[in-house]
Amino acid sequence: MKLSLDPKAINDVLDGHWAEARRRGRTLAEEPSTHDDPADDLDTARAKTLDGVMMMAETGLPMTGLSPEMGGKNEHATNVAGFEETVTANPSLQIKAGVQFGLFGGAILHLGDKEQHQKWLLDAQSGRLLGSFAMTEIGHGSDVANVATTATYDEATEEFVIETPFRAATKEYIGNAARDARAAVVFAQLITKGVKHGVHAFFVPVRDEAGEPMPGVSIEDDGYKGGLKGVDNGRLAFDSVRIPRTNLLNRYGDVTADGTYSSPIESPGRRFFTMLGTLVQGRVSLDGASVVASKIALDIAVRYGLERKQFTAGDDFAETTLLDYGQHQRRLMPALAAVYASAFAHEKLLTSFEEVFAGADDSEENRALLETRAAAFKADSTWMALDVIQECREACGGAGFMAENRLVGLRADLDVYVTFEGDNTVLLQLVAKRLLGDYAKEFANLDVGGAARFIGTQAAEHTLYRTGLANAGRAISDALTPNLGDKRIRSGRLQRTLLETRLEVMVAGVAQALRPATKMPAAQAADLFNVHQHELIEMARAYVELEKWKALDEKMKEQTDADQAKAFRRLRDTYGLGLIEKHMAWHLMYGRLPMSRARQINETLNRLCKKLAANALDLVEAFGYSDVHRRATIASGVEAERQAEAADYYRRARARQDFPVDEKQLRKAAKKKAKAAAR
Amino acid sequence: MKLSLDPKAINDVLDGHWAEARRRGRTLAEEPSTHDDPADDLDTARAKTLDGVMMMAETGLPMTGLSPEMGGKNEHATNVAGFEETVTANPSLQIKAGVQFGLFGGAILHLGDKEQHQKWLLDAQSGRLLGSFAMTEIGHGSDVANVATTATYDEATEEFVIETPFRAATKEYIGNAARDARAAVVFAQLITKGVKHGVHAFFVPVRDEAGEPMPGVSIEDDGYKGGLKGVDNGRLAFDSVRIPRTNLLNRYGDVTADGTYSSPIESPGRRFFTMLGTLVQGRVSLDGASVVASKIALDIAVRYGLERKQFTAGDDFAETTLLDYGQHQRRLMPALAAVYASAFAHEKLLTSFEEVFAGADDSEENRALLETRAAAFKADSTWMALDVIQECREACGGAGFMAENRLVGLRADLDVYVTFEGDNTVLLQLVAKRLLGDYAKEFANLDVGGAARFIGTQAAEHTLYRTGLANAGRAISDALTPNLGDKRIRSGRLQRTLLETRLEVMVAGVAQALRPATKMPAAQAADLFNVHQHELIEMARAYVELEKWKALDEKMKEQTDADQAKAFRRLRDTYGLGLIEKHMAWHLMYGRLPMSRARQINETLNRLCKKLAANALDLVEAFGYSDVHRRATIASGVEAERQAEAADYYRRARARQDFPVDEKQLRKAAKKKAKAAAR
């Protein structure tokens, strides 16, 4: 059952194309001063985190995204991959650095012109100029197009006047704002000559040299949060704050001295989405950071599960460890499979991120795909991280709740990942809309074969729905996969077909249900949309799950070492069958999976998890982390030492003449004797 | 759709028999000094929590469980119900008070004799004598029978010698230990005359008057945890610590001066379980506390969801609130239904707790039922609380992550509830064993009709399994519920039948699968058990879910007000159909639910959630909490104020001549004009 695996070789596959950057990030994360400490108060945690940000600046990683003429390499994923690994030091560090270099610096890079790059970008990426990214407002969480802050051009002074018109327009949850930022990229409605040209980004100084708020700028501290103690989130409000005209980051929209607006993108809608699209890096990096956090949690829980033995005083030779238990395997091994799938999916995301931003393929299609995937993966991976970390924490029992074992801290910090940089439910609706759009397009341009396939699916689905004739569906499915044995349930083709069919049927179904909306008045259309909101979100999740499964399947097929390929296949099947089990009701209802096969899934998963558990240590060792990254007492070997000591005690004690006899044994012996006497 | 409900009347139903005690607990929780504060450091949080414990002592609630001759009322549930409500002030307070009065005092009450009550119990329940409950050891989390600490009787001095033989035997996670306890009830193996009589409880002083550890006692501080900052958990180890013979809490086992052991319960196994059984209060109170924490979270999230409008700058009259969204309803309303079901199930648990401990019915059957339910409900409710609080936190977006809105703090504190007082997975296996035991007993003594029923179920299940003939099962199920319309899916009988059948079939199936284990060698039997561990746990969860559903169903039937009954029915159906949807694959695979009906469940749930949302405010208002209990900025009305201000701004602005026109609108108008000119 146990395979012969080389963790180092698997690590190469996991670390992938940006291995070098990852290793640099991990080296930085070994520096003790970057590590979070639950005993730190708010000020200490923030100061330490800022020091960490400065150390990151010193690595030079934040400069790699710049053009060669500015000292960069026009490499975008390197930076992201490196940063992601700093989650192992402290998620606050990853986030605060993300705000500084990815959002603040990134906005200047992507939305500013060369002059603005010269003025601010080098200072930003070297940490000399600390900044905020002021997009979110209290009243508009995920609805950026409607932020209420205004930037009105004043021809007389050639300045923009930044204004927070009411309390709900206050910029909220802004990282770096409460303590460190000297400037902020502020998103506001650009108004000139009485016309509102939509949301644009402005460079606004918020504190003077002494750290005092600039005139007209009010700053509040968000104080304590559920985690991320080292990030100084705060609120920014502007009372007629004047900035030079040239502080408008003008790549996608500019205003001349006399107040004339111009933009290379005519449509205000497309202009807005293009601007936002350049900021996709945040979502990409949260996807990756979630994978890293999940890896660390599993690394800790698996090591503890393999070390902690459940021996009793009566039987100190029993070598059952926690991870020998069926339920423990079912808790941790599917999590391990999901993390592998997500890691490979993230690698693909990074690749298209690099293609788009380095210019190898910045076609509109590729950009759209990148944005869709970033939204989808971010949503799925951040939720996965919370689930995985929590499962690990519970699998470690009371020890899992101790701060010194890190799991609770990781979970607390990662919590907000599911609602920031786009609330997950909002992101998934975005993905759903893209899926429907692609479906409609495909439908329009489809050749006959393809159309028939879609129509076929749809018709089958519809017939089923109306008639409730499950057998019709089952017959189709059985024809598709006839006489499946146990082995065949682990067939990649079957898994793929099930995952794909589910997505296709869902998309076709929702598309059909929503079609009338196009001809309805807005309010009625909104109602119809609302009725199907839950399905839209489920559909988007089905998309991510398929994408992640495919990433793992592809990587499996690349493996040349027989045992390594086998391990990857176990991971793929555990992930795939786990998804099919999760959505089993759907597959049954839509007749895609015969009952007899469905019944085998639970047992097959039990067996797969047991097999994976046999190589669990190799598979977490392959993440490439050391004790310094884990920093969890329970994963340090102390448990094994204690248990050896205990076993030794009993061994020696039992050899003693005066070792007490158990009352239970005396009673048993007495009973036997009484019985013998009675005979 | 909206019903006319009286929150006060529903509150009476929810608060139930122990309403008075609940209100006393809530009044105490209004005291600002008891409230947790994320800014407190460890020392401050602990000191404040201790003050709160003292205030609880002053209420006299901890004395109610004592006998009348000691100034009590022999009322047990009163105390528990009152305590549960203090979760609204600070879960640390509930836990630290639980350690002091429920575990430390409770152990003296239930395991000690009258003399020992006189010596320690009044002091414990008045807070004059602070104590720990030292059961768990590092090496034995949930396996209490095998704790390694020894208490060896020394005839020469008439003392017990308490010993921690090795590091893994250190008492761990002990509440009150790190800072406040002067004494501890220590669970240790009683050894006298060379015989080990199993685990007994001993009263052991651990600190002197000055607060210094007693000679031979080592105390370590567990430091920071994932939450419960106000509870001073720590480790206790004993190096030949001598205590008088009379410090053995001797109700179920005593040692005479010459070292002779005696017990009113002959069987060491039964003796152990009887002792442990008296300590069920901890689990009972965690079940209730989880319900209270979930109520507060929902109270906050629902109020915010009703207040926060998603209007845009362009349309300030749109009055869509978050809770108008389908997905938002699907997030919060099933949680609301689960909390109602759990509240009523908890009331039943409290009732049997009172029956057993006040003596109205302390039969072995009733004790066993109490213990089974306490384990089952505690496991389900503590997990429910984590899910509900997290769903609420995410439903509030970024605001949900701010400490000032309380959700993150509640979740962090409640986290450990799922693994302490018995790890949930261990508790559920306990429940599963009881279910199998009952099944076997019933099977043995069953009359023919009953046996036929079981055999019938089993046979059907078995046939299905072997043949994969879903239709056989479906035919049965269709016969059972012919021609179900939409309404009939909401039939209580159908829901109950589905929930019951699932449990019965699972029990029968697992029983059959495990039957060979009784004749196997231990290791092989353990392997077989291990293969079915996952199913055992699922089976136990099916039991709790049915019990909770029944509690809600019964309470629904008691309602006389038509609208109130209707609201309860919506809650019951949401809870019931939610469970059926969750386990839909099972119901389909076992042919219990026809496909055509299964397909309706999602839509029916959508509709039910929408209906419940119409009365959401009434249903959370009925929890009986005030702003002081919620203490969440977002639930205080501030959001509505901000939004009114924003709407007002736009209304006034639009009336102005110089209000900027949207570029989009200009473009639209220009296009129209161009078209008109072209015609």
UniProtKB/TrEMBL annotation, chains A, B:
Residues 132-241 form the Acyl-CoA oxidase/dehydrogenase middle domain. InterPro entries: ACOX_C_alpha1, Acyl-CoA_Oxase/DH_mid-dom, Acyl-CoA_Oxase/DH_mid-dom_sf, Acyl-CoA_oxidase, Acyl-CoA_oxidase_C, AcylCo_DH-like_C, AcylCoA_DH/ox_N, AcylCoA_DH/ox_N_sf. Residues 277-436 form the Acyl-CoA oxidase C-alpha1 domain. Gene3D superfamilies: Acyl-CoA dehydrogenase/oxidase, N-terminal domain (1.10.540.10), Butyryl-CoA Dehydrogenase, subunit A, domain 2 (2.40.110.10), Butyryl-CoA Dehydrogenase, subunit A, domain 3 (1.20.140.10). SUPFAM superfamilies: Acyl-CoA dehydrogenase C-terminal domain-like, Acyl-CoA dehydrogenase NM domain-like. Residues 501-629 form the Acyl-CoA oxidase C-terminal domain. Residues 51-127 form the Acyl-CoA dehydrogenase/oxidase N-terminal domain. It comes from the Bacteria. Keywords: FAD, Flavoprotein, Oxidoreductase. The keyword Oxidoreductase applies. Its cofactor is FAD. Residues 24-43 are annotated as: Disordered. Belongs to the acyl-CoA oxidase family. PANTHER family: ACYL-COENZYME A OXIDASE-LIKE PROTEIN, ELECTRON TRANSPORT OXIDOREDUCTASE. This is Acyl-CoA dehydrogenase. It comes from Brevibacterium sediminis. The lineage of its organism: Bacteria, Bacillati, Actinomycetota, Actinomycetes, Micrococcales.
